[in-house]
Each structure stands twice: as structure tokens, then as C-alpha cells.
Design a protein that fits this description.
Largest sheet: 10 strands, mixed
Structural class: alpha/beta
Order of helices and strands: EHEHHHHHHEEEEHEHEHEHEHHH
Radius of gyration: 20 Å
Number of strands: 10
Shape: globular
């Protein structure tokens, strides 16, 4: 049984950020705001992410050295360095360029005709240009060596069927092994992690001539072929909560889950497309449920401490007296039904999703880590804490 306290010196602390498009990016942004105000974000040992969580995590990694902490560990410029740029990015339509206009642009046709380039590369280029400032993954190594967190971006190897990671000291998976390419753009890692397979083809990672180590795949010829060009899809295909890299070797694990809920249907699968989508949803539900049960079991057995919260969580279910205030009823239903897409989110949607993440993270910390000091924190938008106003703010806009 783990008896370590979150306030103890030297404890290892992990945060896992799930997938779920811009909805997840904004929900996690509210989570990060609350953890930062608590002085906990600056103490994270590892921050792991998939898909929409990797978009927010990518910005956090690139801005980490620009953040300034006060004596409590709170980053005083978090809103300027992280919230502002992230909200601007999520206020634009990212989906249409790689899937439509970029694909139709004749200037991109020569590249798109190659077998090592696709519209997912166009997505990576947009991440580089508009969010990550062209950073390379060498930055991850430098951050870790300087005492910062290990930022981990998870994709899925479609060849080996396992999690493929971009970490501070390695790229790869346990089947084909691990390598390193300091010049690889971070945008490639974020794009691979967020390439939702229904919309985006796998990203072909250019690693010809790289030196590899380990890998338990016994077929050396097949291993060599897979190493030449790993084909990567959304990290959520294998692990939509980003838990794989963090749940075995940390004292505390916090999991923020903004994934889509499973909806019951009386007559699913009426045509080929709906059957494929429904099958995907069932597989995702099974995978998510298994990982959640394993996480809860580890908490119960005392393997480590921490907390789990989800976009679908009714905050009133936390065992706190007085009960925690937050979104419920029709407002929570509307939040849960928010699209998981990469098109633009207007201010109302952004602020309600951020409020929801902020509320749940703060309540989970209070319920499960009461030893941590309760630093003051302001919500992203106090007026929108009101359920009726939040419901109105979520309505579509022209």
C-alpha cells in the first residue's frame, strides 16, 4: 500500500490527457488552469497525451521554459502563454485545410503523390506553423535534462498494433524497438497522435537509415521493413486516455478523460458506414472501460494514489460535504454532446468546456488528495458557472 503524500519531496507525479478533438483540448486547458493555480502543474514528473490532449500538451511543452513560477509553484503567466494561444488556435477551423483545401491545392499534389506523405503531413505543418513554432522533439530531451517534466506523445502503430511513443529520449514501440531523430518536428508527433483514422490516413514517419535498439519482434526482415517507415494513427486507437506510459512507475497518477461517451441505440448499424462507426465505438468503449477499471483497481489496492475525472462526470457524485457545485442536468448533457472535431469552437463553447475541466480537476484534487493545500483559483468565466447561462453559451453560432 502506498502511503506517500502528494506534499512529500521527491514524489513522482503523472498527468494523462485523453483524446477527443478540440473538445478535449479545451477541457484539458481548464484542467491545467486549475492544477496550475494549485501549484501542482509545475511539479509534474510526466505529462502524457493522446489526440486532442496532445494538441494542448504540445503547446505546453513548447512554452514551458517561458513560464514563470511564484513561490507556491504557480505559473503567473499561464494565461498569457498557454490559455490565450490555445484558445486562438481552437477558434480556427483546422480540419478543412488538410482534408479539403490543402488536398485540392496543386502545389501540394507532387508531395501527396508520394507514399511517405499524406494529408496528415499537411495537418502536421499547420501544427508547426500556427501552434508549435516549428519546435523539434529535441526540445523534449532538453526540457527533461533541465529538470522539467517528461512530455510524452502517444500514437498508434498500425503495423505492430501497439502504442508508439515520442518521449524525451526515444521514439518507437516495444515491438520494432526505439530510435531517435533530434530534427523531427514536434508537429509530426502531435499530428500522428491526433490523426483520427476515419478522417486522416496514417502518418508515414521518415526514419530511413536511423539506428534502432531493442524490439521483441522476432521476424528481422519484417522488423526492418517496419522500421524504415512506421505508419502511425491516432493514439486513441490503442489507448485513448494516454495512461500506458505513466501508470506503472509513478507515485501519483491523474487522468483527465474527455473522450466521447458511448450512447445506447435500439437500431444501430443501418448501413455500411454506420456499422463501421458503431463497431469502432464499441471497441473504443471496451478499451476505455478496461483501462479505467485497471486504474481504479490500482487506486483501490494502493499501488499509487491520484484521481480520475471524465467529461461525463457528474460533479455532485464526489463524496464531499457540502456537495461540490458544477454542471449537471441538461447542461452536462449538452457538454457531453459537444462535437469531437477540429473545426472552430466559439468563445461560449470554449469557456464552458474550460470551466468544466477546471471544476472537475479542483473537486477531484480536494476529494482524493486533501493533504494538498487549497490554493485560491478563479474559473475561466465565473458568470458561465451558472447552468442556464452555460447551456445558452453552448448553442451554435453563425
Amino acid at each position: 500500500m502506498s502511503e506517500k503524500q502528494l506534499t512529500d519531496a521527491g514524489v513522482t507525479t503523472a498527468l494523462a490527457l485523453s483524446g477527443g478533438g478540440f473538445r478535449a483540448s479545451l477541457f484539458h486547458l481548464g484542467v491545467l488552469r486549475r492544477l496550475n493555480d494549485a501549484g501542482l502543474l509545475s511539479r509534474m514528473t510526466t505529462i502524457s497525451s493522446v489526440s486532442g490532449g496532445s494538441i494542448t500538451n504540445g503547446l505546453l511543452a513548447t512554452r514551458w521554459t517561458r513560464l514563470t513560477a511564484d513561490p507556491t509553484g504557480r505559473f503567473t503567466n499561464f494565461q498569457d502563454e498557454i490559455e490565450g494561444p490555445m484558445r486562438t488556435f481552437c477558434g480556427r477551423n483546422l480540419r478543412n485545410y488538410p482534408l479539403i483545401t490543402g488536398r485540392l491545392d496543386p502545389r501540394n499534389w507532387p508531395a501527396l503523390a508520394r507514399d511517405d506523405y499524406s494529408v496528415t503531413n499537411l495537418l502536421a505543418e499547420r501544427y508547426d506553423r500556427d501552434l508549435l513554432g516549428g519546435a523539434t522533439i529535441e526540445m523534449l530531451r532538453q526540457l527533461k535534462q533541465a529538470g522539467g517534466p517528461a512530455f510524452v506523445f502517444c500514437a498508434t502503430s498500425l503495423q505492430a498494433g501497439v502504442s508508439f511513443v515520442f518521449e524525451p529520449d526515444r521514439i518507437g514501440d516495444y515491438r520494432i524497438g526505439y530510435t531517435w531523430n533530434s530534427a523531427l518536428k514536434l508537429g509530426m508527433a502531435v499530428a500522428a497522435s491526433s490523426a483520427f483514422p476515419i478522417a486522416f490516413p496514417p502518418l508515414a514517419l521518415p526514419l530511413e537509415g536511423a539506428e534502432w535498439r531493442a524490439g521483441d519482434l522476432s521476424d528481422t526482415e519484417l522488423k526492418a521493413q517496419m522500421r524504415r517507415m512506421p505508419l502511425l494513427s491516432d493514439g486513441g486507437v490503442y489507448d485513448n486516455m494516454g495512461l500506458e506510459p505513466v501508470w506503472k512507475d509513478h507515485d501519483f497518477v491523474f487522468c483527465s478523460d474527455a473522450g466521447a461517451p458511448f450512447s445506447d441505440e435500439a437500431s444501430p448499424g443501418g448501413n455500411l458506414i454506420s456499422r463501421l462507426w458503431r463497431s469502432h465505438s464499441v471497441i473504443d468503449r471496451q478499451s476505455r472501460s478496461l483501462r479505467k477499471r485497471m486504474l481504479m483497481s490500482a487506486f483501490t489496492q494502493g499501488d499509487y494514489r491520484g484521481a480520475y475525472w471524465a467529461l461525463t462526470t457528474d460533479i455532485r457524485n464526489y463524496p464531499l460535504i457540502p456537495p461540490a457545485a458544477g454542471y449537471g442536468g441538461a447542461t452536462l448533457k449538452a457538454i457531453v454532446g459537444t462535437r469531437t472535431d477540429l473545426d472552430s469552437f466559439h468563445d461560449g463553447e470554449q469557456l464552458v468546456l474550460m470551466n468544466h475541466g477546471w471544476l472537475l480537476a479542483g473537486t477531484a484534487l480536494k476529494a482524493h488528495c486533501p493533504e494538498w493545500p487549497g490554493h485560491a483559483s478563479e474559473p475561466p468565466d465565473e458568470e458561465l458557472l451558472d447552468n442556464a447561462r452555460a447551456l445558452e453559451a453552448l448553442e451554435p453560432r453563425e
